[in-house]
Structures are given as structure tokens and as C-alpha cells.
């Protein structure tokens, strides 16, 4: 018994010591999607800002896979020492419904650091797609149905969910084409290989401004300040069609609270960092409030979003496996 007590005391002392000196080396921030996609764009700006507060480099590492499962599993299995983190988007809340063989529980197998930003979405098409606007697109889809394809960044991603909701609301059946991230989906859209894409403004803003794609509408209640010329889908007759993509930072489950709190503090500091604010403003992304940029805030958001999206996915009968 005495040996066990001594071992526990020594372990506790080591945890405190590690927390006090944390971080003493660079931190890895895993993005479970391809480089250049919306989550990757947010992650790279966040890494720079958090690094300034932590006094160590935060290095972005991409581990792309459908649904972001591979990268998420890598962080779940990593040492719980605060040196391997995960940034995931709304897709974290869709995995329990999408993957029948998911080897982790998003609600139980991670430590929460906090939310980062909300990112609005836009529906865009290849620039030579026949309908000039969304009002013309609706009857076009009714006639063409599965002859029209809609790309997405991967099963369970926000763009996939947006496509499912769009088809449901319009009562049409397009052909879904899934990619490993938004960047390759956008590349094929601009190349004319797919017809439509509903994705985050971090992906679509520059192509819209450059005339490389055709903008059909935004998934927001009001027009976006950064894309004021693009009408919302709601104002074009698709009432209450709203999706904002939230992002959160996670750590391995057993990461000491002292380290999680240090990371959460660095996250909140990053959200008011001038460089980060300017980068997000250019993309139309909105930093969350301090209460959401916290372990409790992220935990609450994840639970609420799992409850929201699970029945939608189940009705669509779509799975990753």
C-alpha cells in the first residue's frame, strides 16, 4: 500500500512539473483533411497565433481520410502530453452516425480544448453550368436529377451534409461525388469535372471573387459582408436553409487538466490575435465567443450537434463503411 501511495505521489508530482514547463518543444496540430481545404486554412492561421502565446511552434500535420477518421484516431492514440492535438470541424458530430465501425467515441475519447470559428457556406457551380442563378437552378435540377453531380469534401463533412439537405429540401436526387477534402473537390469543380459544390467560404471566397466558379447562394440568414453580391439561399426561396461550420480543438483523453487549461488559454488568446482576426475576416470566418472557446463550450456544442445531425444521416441511409 505504501509503495502504491508513493508511486501515485511521484506520478502526480511529475504531471505538475510537466504542466509547469509545458510546452518545452513544438506542438503538433493534426488536420484530418487534405492541405488547402477549409479546416487546413483555419488550422494554419490558428497555429501561428497559438504559437505566439505558447512560446513554441505549433506545426500543422495533415492526415487526410474520408470523414477525418485516420487523423482523429492518430490523436486519440497519441501520448496525452499536450504535444499532439486535433482540429476537426462539424464532421466530428456526424461520425457516430456515419461510421458503424467507428473505433472511438467523439464524446468520451478526447479531452476538449475549445471551439475556434464558425464558417458560413456557399453553393457554387462550375462557371459554365447552364442556370444563371438559384431560381433557374431549381427547375433545372428537377429535370436533370442524377445527371447533375454535386461534389463534397468527404462523407460526413459539412459539404456532404449541405448536399443532403439541399436534395431533401428541393426533393431532387443528384449524384454525390465524395473527395478526400475540399481542395480536390474545388479543383475538379473549377476544371468542369463536377457540377456543384456546397462548401465553406474558406474554400469558395477566392474562386467566387476570381470568377472561377458560379455562386448560387450563401447558407446564412443575411448576406455575407465579404460576399455581399451573393444572395442567401433563404432570400431566394429556400427558407431557413442555414449551415455554419464550427471547428474545435481536441487533445488525447488523459491529457492533464493543467495542460488542457494552458491550451484553452492560448486558444482564447489566438482568437483575439490581430493576425488571426484579419486572416479569418478575409475568409468570412467568425471567431467564437470566449465561453465557446473553452473545454465546456466544445463539449456542449459537440453533444448538441450529434443530436441534431444523427437523425438526418440515418434518414439518408449513408455510411462510410
Structural features:
321 residues; alpha/beta; D-Maltodextrin-Binding Protein, domain 2; 2 domains; ten-stranded mixed beta sheet; 11 helices; 43% helix
Which radius of gyration do the C-alpha atoms yield?
Answer: 21 Å
CATH class categorisation of the largest domain? Alpha Beta
* Portion in helices: 40-55%
Anisotropy-based shape: globular
Sketch the topology as an H/E string, one letter per element. HEHEHEHEHEHEHEHEEHHEH
- Termini Cα gap: 48 Å
Mean of all residue-level pLDDT scores: 92
Oligomer: single chain
Low-pLDDT windows of residues:
none
- Main sheet specs: 10 strands, mixed
Query: Approximately how much beta-strand content do the residues carry?
Result: 15-25%
CATH architectural label of the largest domain? 3-Layer(aba) Sandwich
What count of domains describes the coordinates?
Answer: 2
CATH topology of the largest domain: D-Maltodextrin-Binding Protein, domain 2
